[in-house]
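Before the break, one more example. Copy the sequence into your notebook; we will annotate it together after we see the structure.
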Amino acid sequence: MSTVSATCFGHLRQIGRIRKSLDAGSTATLVHAFVTSRVDYCNVVLAESPRSTTDKLQRVMNGAARVISNTQKYDSGFSLLRHEQLHWLEVIDRVRYKLAVLAYRSLHGTAPQYLISLLTSASEVTGRQYLRSAAQQKLIVPRCCRKTFGCRAFSVASPSVWNALADSLRDTELTLDIFSRHLKTYFFRLF
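Here is what the structure looks like once it is written out:
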């Protein structure tokens, strides 16, 4: 985490040096290419991790937003800028977003087979077909043995995020594009 954070801040410093000669669109493209792509790479491993771990990446995202918007550290309205103008989710919500999309893809058979095999729908388990959870397209959340890392496993974290979504998002008729748009809107409303 520290290495990713240090690398991203190094890229932000380099982009900040040439910021005066760039327009906002070019700056955003550079930040997306060098910073947010590194933050988003394999961020699913941060599922259910402590806030102290994700805060390092959140500081990187805040710095990236400051470089794009050309604002200072203590300018007011910064969180609104990040959400309303840049349409960026918090790091924790980015992780939840990716977990929910992977769960959607697994349920629809478009994810890799090793991910599909980790998730079980409540309607597939004998004795649970007629329960309310089966009708609501919920997933079975397996018990985790170890509190520190067991609950962070994909097989536990993804069903937990999926089951916490609104019923309208768990609709099987939604396409991936519509699901992704509604999911991002859902996370913005939680803010």
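The chain has nine helices and no strands. The radius of gyration is 19 Å. Try to locate both features in your own notes.
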